[in-house]
Design goal:
Helix content is 40%, strand content 11%. It is α/β, with parallel strands linked by helices. Residues 3-10, 158-165 and 295-303 have low confidence and may be disordered.
């Protein structure tokens, strides 16, 4: 499922603040109010950003998988992930919530999935009503940006900090759709250490809860192995310059970008910030870290 299962001998990353447990209860209590669950995933890490708790919580509800931040993800792998979900019988769409790309298809799919329930209620004598969806996803996956795009106004408070939890709110999307926004939740334990690393790389967990040096070194190693052309282009290196070791790449970046201390020593902390920021912002190009499961893999993503 991931591009870097061979470099997971790193720090164990675990993070489940108390308010996440409260958010889980809030979702369970309000699930009966909606017709469809929209699960928002990070298109760069569809496996790692899929909360395994949600599959159990929303069992029995129609589910729509939405791959957000598609502008940052490898387009080849995004197409493979969409095919994977569709073969699993799940509706799926790739979007860019910042520009609105794919959001019309999202709305159409959500209304279609909700139609069975709304029509069943009408046959029982209920008044016609808008379809109701619940948007779920881990922190910092772009839920607020998506909701703002769909609603056309800043109804949801966008937070670029993982773990910022709001109370629920209903938001009208056109005449045929009502959306229930819920707080983002992570899960109690990352069974796969690669998942923890991917969430740290993309900013889904707070930078304050892990060893920055170890994590960014692993990101640098991964990029050298999986996307060397992107690294060369961004940092003006030749293929022969690309090291196999992440710390060596960070030293190169530090010198290229003038991250130097007295005596010409590389300020590694500053170089780490450069790499992490440029990866997260997409300045290094469209990069994905998870690959879809296949029969050749030992384990399959339960998404």
């Amino acid at each position: 499922m991931t591009e870097h299962e061979h470099i997971i001998d790193g720090p164990g990353i675990q993070w489940f603040p108390g308010h996440m447990a409260k958010a889980k209860r809030l979702i369970e209590e309000n699930l009966k109010l909606v017709d469809v669950v929209v699960e928002l995933l990070d298109a760069r890490i569809p496996y790692s950003s899929a909360n395994p708790l949600l599959k159990e919580i929303v069992a029995g509800k129609p589910r729509l998988i939405v791959l957000n931040k598609v502008d940052l993800a490898d387009p080849v792998l995004t197409r493979q992930w969409l095919t994977y979900f569709q073969e699993k019988g799940l509706a799926a769409v790739a979007i860019d919530s910042m520009t609105g790309k794919g959001t019309k298809q999202l709305v159409h799919l959500a209304e279609t999935l909700a139609k069975e329930k709304t029509e069943r209620l009408m046959r029982k004598g209920a008044r016609a009503r808008a379809a109701r969806i619940m948007v779920l996803g881990i922190p910092n996956v772009g839920k607020s940006s998506l909701i703002n795009r769909l609603a056309g106004v800043n109804k949801a408070k966008a937070e670029n900090r993982p773990g910022v939890t709001r109370s629920k709110q209903w938001i009208r999307i056109g005449k045929n759709l009502e959306l229930l926004d819920m707080p983002g939740i992570l899960w109690p334990k990352f069974e796969d250490p690669v998942v923890g690393l991917n969430l740290a790389f993309t900013g889904a967990v707070s930078d304050e809860v892990y060893d920055m040096e170890q994590v960014v070194n692993r990101l640098a190693t991964l990029l050298c192995r999986s996307y060397p052309a992107r690294v060369c282009e961004r940092y003006q290196l030749t293929p022969d310059d690309i090291p196999a070791d992440g710390s060596a790449l960070l030293n190169l970046i530090g010198r290229k970008r003038g991250c130097l201390l007295k005596g010409g020593i590389v300020d590694l902390e500053k170089a780490q910030r450069v790499l992490l920021t440029e990866f997260r912002s997409g300045k290094m190009g469209r990069i994905s870290l998870d690959i879809p499961p296949s029969d050749g893999l030992k384990k399959e993503a339960e998404i």
